[in-house]
Design a protein that fits this description.
- Helix content is 21%, strand content 6%.
- By secondary structure, it is α+β, with helices and mostly antiparallel strands.
- A hairpin with a 6-residue loop joins strand 1 (18-19) and strand 2 (26-27).
- The mean pLDDT is 79.
- InterPro entries: DUF7563.
- Pfam families: DUF7563.
Length: 63
Amino acid sequence: MRSTQHDWKPMESSTAGARCRNCGTHVTQQFARVFGDNGDVVHGCPACTTYREMQSGGHLPGD
């Protein structure tokens, strides 16, 4: 039996594609892992949020 292994390609997104919840802009899966919440959900991207907010977590919804 042959196991299926998926190659991780950090600069490519999945076919479903991750999108910013704030503005709907397409983002890569790597971007979602780095700047998304614990579920890799992106709440702000470079199209609608500053990098300063993304680095500090200011774009993430509060508890």
